[in-house]
Design goal:
elongated, 4 strands, binds zinc ion, alpha+beta, two-stranded antiparallel ribbon
Amino acid sequence: MAGGTKGRSVKRRCLACGRYRVRGTVIRRVFLCRACEERLLTTGVNDPEYDHFVAGLRKVWPEFR
Ligand SMILES: [Zn+2]
């Protein structure tokens, strides 16, 4: 049996988009993939997607505004 893929590429589920990604940031045990992190920072309050992000974040991060 060949061992194979024992890598460091542990995938975690992004809170915002729900996809499993390797790269991202963990904020208070909440994982945000790189794309969503940047998205969140660049998305304006007027953007409909912003609500989606915030709603997801608040589930685990009540203080997030
Ligand atoms: Zn994401």
